[in-house]
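Need the bound structure for protoporphyrin IX containing FE, inputs here:
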Amino acid sequence: MEVPELGIVSSFRFAWRQLTSMRTALILLLLLGVVSIPGSLIPQRTQNPMRVREYFVNDPTLATWMDRLSLFDVYGSAWFSAIYILLFISLIGCVLPRSFEHLKVARALPPITPKNLDRMEFHHRWSGSGDELDLGRSWLVSKRFRIREFDGAISAEKGYLRETGNLFFHLALILILIGVSFGALFGMRGEAIVNVGERFINIPTTYDSLSYGKLFRDQSLPLFSLTIDNFEAKYSPLTNAPQDYTLQVTVTEKPGATPVKRIIKVNSPLSFGSTNVYLQANGYSPIVSVRDRTGAIVLQGPTPFLPQDGNLTSIGAIKVPDSDPQLGFVSAFLPTASRDKVRGAISVFPEALDPKLLFSVWRGDLGLDRGVPQSVYRIDTSKMQKIALKSLKVGETYTFAEGSITFDGFVPWVNLQVVRDPGKIYALFGGIVALLGLLASLFTRSRRIWIRSNTSGEVEVAGLAKNSAPGLENEIGLLIAHLRKVGE
Amino acid sequence: MTDSSWAYLSNYLVYSAMAVYTLAFFAHAYETAWAVRAPEVDAPGGNLLVKTFDYKRTEKVARVATAFMILGFLLLFIGVVARGISAGRVPWGNMYEFSITGALAFCGAYLFTLRKYDLRWLGLLVSIAVLLTLGTAITLLYRPSAPLVPALKSTWLIIHVSAAIVSGGVFLLANIIAAAYLYLDSMEQRGERKTWAKRLPSLEVLDQLSYRLVAFVFPLWTFAVIAGAIWAEHAWGRYWGWDPKETWAFITWVAYAAYLHARVTVGWRGRKAAWLCLFAGSTFLFNYVYINIWGTGKHTYSGL
Ligand code: HEM
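Answer from helper R.:
Posting the output first, comments after.
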């Protein structure tokens, strides 16, 4: 190995040359594949926070260590980023100079014919009749070869598109990366659960969860609002699998605009510029009225419940902080109620054919004032006392010592996902260019053919196929047949 | 015809295709046992890959075997189409359907390559692979025909999945050839080839062939990944989310890109290249089998 001179400049140059070498690029490429494996086997926080939490519960020490190594967030981790950033630096370092080189080559003539053609592939020699160069020239020109003549020899080349395509492919990979980063920096993504009949306004406080790119500003949220008019879900009576979801909304694009009716489906989001609204999930919100001892209403309305299975067996928490003492209903909603030997009360079909609300009633302190964020689907019963267990059908009321609860009905809810990604268009464009470049590069045969005719009438033909592309032998066979006027 | 009679028809066709592939298997076994080594042929202007071995003694059986392969392909093709008609959609909704279509694509890739290169020596392996795939599909993965869940209702499903399945078929073929390369190579390193192996193509030809197959489908696989990203953007609101299925599609892509690089720019040939090819192919299989059945994530449509 070459020993580099000391000194910052030269060691930098040495590092740069190493980094942009083909071998390093290949290793980095393979490495990128290998390091993306753990993220597909270990649950990731961005996709499956529940399973990550399980790791912490089951083995806290191990989980803490895994967390230190970013194993729950592989694709955002420093080491993953380091590898792809190095790869792309290497790519830029190699491809940009090559592009300039190619620009020059693409306009230049092919290099002159080498002296010793017999060292080349498919070399043939015979004594000719003197008109071979003319015949050869017209044949090569008609096949759109680029030609250079020098000293009784023709040098012809074809297939420049291969290198052009290859360069475009690699440059497009850079464009894809730019698109991805742009989207991550200037985008946003949020989710909100909205009951049918309610209105969603696109401001930060209406979201259940919301995350911004580092350079996103609040004012960039387009001020649209949606009213959920209707949600219809169709299920297969045979397999219980969903067949169709249709969400009807009334949209106001900006304050003061005339509302229009629109439809959102799973594969067709609603678009406002680079912001899209997706239909992501659905469930039920039971509607209850809770009264205190005097009969005064202390809570009324729908509460979204969280589905637990494909038949929408849902759990939820109805919290009544304004009664005295505070009340909590740890509940389950079953759209089509049935009993299972193992799981107890479950739903057997996702449509509400025989809806039931099951709950246990708790009294005491809901713990909402302690400042610790609580799940809306669960109740912290550590400071509470269970006083009853009951199941109700729609319209029924259950009365207990502290008051009563009436199961008034239910509405579906939908989970709207709002995404803004201004970079995706660049990524898409990059993808298309990469594909076209790849096709051009892989399906263009790049080759050279030489013909030489010396003064004694001897003719030589030879060729060179770059990347050992097939077919040159045939082509040269045809050329020779033409020069020797075989079969014409 | 009603939906369920189309579904029955599809099942019968898949069974008949299996019967025909079994016949193809026996015919190939026969010609594998009795064909002889070819004299070295120099074929000016002809393709070197064509004429490396000799079927003189078994030509008839080899033809019969290929005819069975084609018949099996046609039966399976109609079977897959009938399955689609019975469900009123493209037949790519669960793992049973992916598998029968995958077997179809694999056999199709073999027959298509056969038009240009004499690959009949591979027929035995191809018929075994198709029979195994169809066998597991029918016994372990079978699900009654049913409509699609909403997330799968998209034109991009047709585009993405068909591209992915065809790529898979060709990757598998390239893999089998790379495996044959490694096997024959280690046989040659121990001495001369065994008699039965003498009629198989030279190592160099195998090396080239698996490379060409990969170079041929790599753009299609690239397209499949892009189409998947576009569809994910429509259905889930992000075009890339490092879902396990996506991650492994990416790994497969990177691995094959590395393979092409290693060949074109670093000049890898032979054993090293064949191992890399096998590695890349196994990431594809892993994605199909493991992630579909045991994986979590949004892509688990196996219906199991
Ligand atoms: C890191 C820096 C990279 C460098 C320096 C580089 C350089 C090259 C070079 C010189 C070629 C040869 C083209 C030819 O001679 O025909 C090539 C081909 C190719 N590269 Fe890269 N590349 C890099 C990264 C990548 C990446 C990240 C990918 C995709 C994952 C990729 C995929 C390909 C493919 C598919 C080919 C085509 C192979 C063929 O022509 O048969 N490259 N690259």
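Comments: The pocket of protoporphyrin IX containing FE is lined by residues A 22, 25, 29, 87, 90-91, 94, 162, 166, 170, 173, 438, 441-442, 467; B 215, 218, 254, 257, 260-261, 264-265 (CB under 6 Å). The two ends of chain A are 58 Å apart (CA to CA).
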